[in-house]
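Colleagues,

For the teaching module next term, I've prepared a clean inverse folding example: a structure given as tokens, and then the sequence designed for it. I'd like students to try predicting residues themselves before seeing the answer, so please don't circulate the second half yet.
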């Protein structure tokens, strides 16, 4: 009996010695697996193949403001209207197509005068005579002014009559004996609206077409009047075109005006921006915009592209070693569309993946799948 008990104790001791290192090894493996599950291995050779950039976290004064939408409108100075210089029947040519680019001087329509050749010649003769008379009177008044016999007011009136007679004569001469007047583009641009139909009868001065020049677009922002004081300190703006955020001042854009007050008919507070040479803006559409104002608060901000969202939780990849990046949870604050404030989770000096974070995430997920292939948990 004593021998049996001794044998059992010996066996238990041996088993204990064999299992202890095994359990410790399994514990170490689980800890290492937990650590690696939160770390991505991303080689420098892979980074060179994509749009990849590292950024160092620095606390600095950032300009965060009010995020809203802006209406894209045409700059009034870039729009011109072509009018009929005489009454008659409209003949639109092949250039008269809405949205078509057109060069200065190009003909988009003709006005066929309903006057006869005889009456046109008579009108031109009368206009020539009136011009000659007005010119003679204007020159006479100028000579009398030099001798202090007349007044500057008389000279100004004579000059106005001369210029009017000259314009009338040139307009009639442009019609020609055939009674056809060309409607030509006055600037390079795009044909906007066409206000008449082919064969329609128009009167002198009636609008024929609209030419939209290549001028800058305007951005109109309307905000609640309670934010008026805050928005008066706006110094710049970030705009989003086709999903990409950019600083308006980088395009040469600037603030044109801020309303001084509101009314019952329009209770909104309005800011108007010149969009500069920003491309991709279409009049009548709306774009996202973030109004930037002065700030004196220091905080850590990182590029918006560095942040990954998963089920309402935000993460960034922090470089912890050569080619090793830790997935770290952060709390975000204000944003300007390009950069985002980080209120917790990062410290000054941390090096993060500023661009390419999503590729690093996919690389980490891929390596985790490979490590677990063939195993059942």
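(Answer key — instructors only)
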């Amino acid at each position: 009996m004593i021998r049996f008990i001794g044998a059992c104790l010996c066996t238990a001791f041996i088993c204990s010695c064999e299992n202890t290192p095994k359990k410790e090894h399994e514990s170490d493996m689980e800890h290492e697996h937990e650590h690696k599950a939160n770390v991505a291995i991303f080689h420098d050779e892979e980074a060179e193949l994509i749009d990849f950039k590292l950024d160092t976290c620095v606390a600095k004064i950032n300009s965060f403001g009010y995020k809203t939408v802006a209406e894209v409108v045409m700059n009034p100075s870039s729009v011109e209207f072509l009018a009929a210089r005489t009454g008659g029947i409209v003949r639109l040519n092949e250039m008269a197509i809405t949205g078509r680019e057109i060069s200065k001087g190009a003909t988009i329509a003709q006005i066929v005068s309903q006057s006869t050749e005889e009456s046109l010649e008579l009108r031109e003769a009368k206009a020539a005579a009136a011009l000659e008379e007005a010119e003679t009177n204007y020159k006479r008044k100028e000579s009398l002014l030099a001798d202090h016999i007349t007044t500057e007011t008389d000279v100004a009136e004579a000059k106005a009559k001369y210029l009017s007679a000259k314009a009338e004569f040139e307009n009639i001469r442009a019609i020609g004996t055939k009674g056809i007047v060309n409607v030509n583009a006055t600037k390079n641009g795009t044909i906007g609206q066409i206000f008449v139909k082919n064969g329609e009868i128009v009167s002198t001065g009636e609008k024929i077409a609209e030419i939209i020049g290549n001028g800058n677009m305007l951005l109109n922002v309307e905000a609640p009047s309670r934010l008026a004081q805050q928005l008066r300190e706006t110094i710049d703006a970030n705009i989003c075109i086709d999903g990409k955020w950019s600083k308006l001042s980088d395009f040469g854009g600037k603030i044109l005006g801020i309303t001084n007050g509101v009314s019952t008919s329009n209770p909104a507070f309005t800011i108007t921006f010149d969009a500069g040479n920003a491309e991709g803006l279409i009049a009548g559409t709306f774009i996202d915009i973030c109004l930037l104002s002065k700030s004196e608060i220091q905080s850590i901000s990182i590029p918006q592209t560095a942040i990954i969202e998963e089920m309402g939780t935000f993460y960034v990849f922090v470089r912890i070693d050569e080619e090793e990046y830790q997935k770290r949870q952060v709390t975000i604050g204000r944003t300007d569309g390009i950069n985002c404030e980080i209120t917790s989770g990062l410290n000054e000096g941390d090096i993060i993946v500023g661009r390419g974070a999503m590729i690093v995430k996919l690389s980490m997920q891929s390596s985790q799948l490979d490590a677990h292939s063939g195993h059942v948990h």
